[in-house]
Specification:
Blueprint: H1 2-5, H2 7-71, H3 74-97, H4 102-124, H5 132-138, H6 141-205
């Protein structure tokens, strides 16, 4: 008879353990998902940082080429090669970081084509047959400004998409944290109710 009388208590304890186990599992999953989403947030910031570094390096490439054409000092030619190599590295890193996004890959491809045009223009300044007057006629200020504007527009498309992804990923991360808090809160309430019921049952059944 005593064995039978403890059945509700045992069942309640088992239910409590199950609820606790499930709530812990759900909480761990939602927290794990949050880490993933916050990781993607860092990833997006990394893309934007690399894009900024690439744009800075492109400016360095053009400055080195201009300095060489003005002073004919080989150190500027060496700097140009180094800056160009760094720029190529940044472009490859941006491609790698965004390889999961086909739309972004198309934007980067368009941006890279414009960047390559500016590299070719800068490279012309290093040619032994370079002539400033001829260069000014072929690559006038209007063309250079237009090319820089095209670079800015292409870069803005990449940044805009990345910032859109950043907003979504932040929201997902915060939503997961909120869900985790809610799961823990509800589990605590349910466990409190079950514990209270167990206490009542035990009190009534005690001699």
């Amino acid at each position: 008879m005593n064995k039978f009388s403890l059945n509700p208590l045992i069942i309640s304890l088992i239910a409590s353990l199950l609820i606790l186990t499930i709530s812990i599992g759900i909480s761990l999953k939602t927290i794990g998902d949050s880490y993933i989403y916050f990781g993607w947030v860092d990833h997006t910031y990394h893309v934007l940082q690399k894009l900024e570094e690439a744009e800075h390096e492109l400016g360095q490439v053009e400055s080195s080429a201009m300095a060489y054409s003005s002073f004919k000092d080989l150190k500027y030619s060496v700097e140009f090669e180094k800056d160009t190599a760094n720029l190529r590295k940044y472009v490859e890193e941006i491609y790698y970081l965004t390889q999961d996004n086909k739309l972004q890959a198309a934007n980067i491809s368009a941006w890279e084509k414009i960047v390559n045009k500016r590299i070719v223009t800068a490279t012309n300044r290093l040619s032994p047959s370079f002539n400033q007057e001829v260069f000014q006629k072929q690559e006038n200020i209007y063309k250079r400004l237009l090319l820089r504007n095209e670079t800015d527009v292409a870069s803005e498309k990449i940044e805009s998409m990345e910032r859109g992804l950043l907003t979504k990923r932040k929201q997902l991360a915060y939503n997961n944290l909120a869900n985790s808090k809610m799961t823990i809160l509800l589990s605590g309430i349910v466990l409190f109710i079950i514990s209270f019921v167990i206490f009542i049952i035990f009190s009534y059944r005690s001699p």
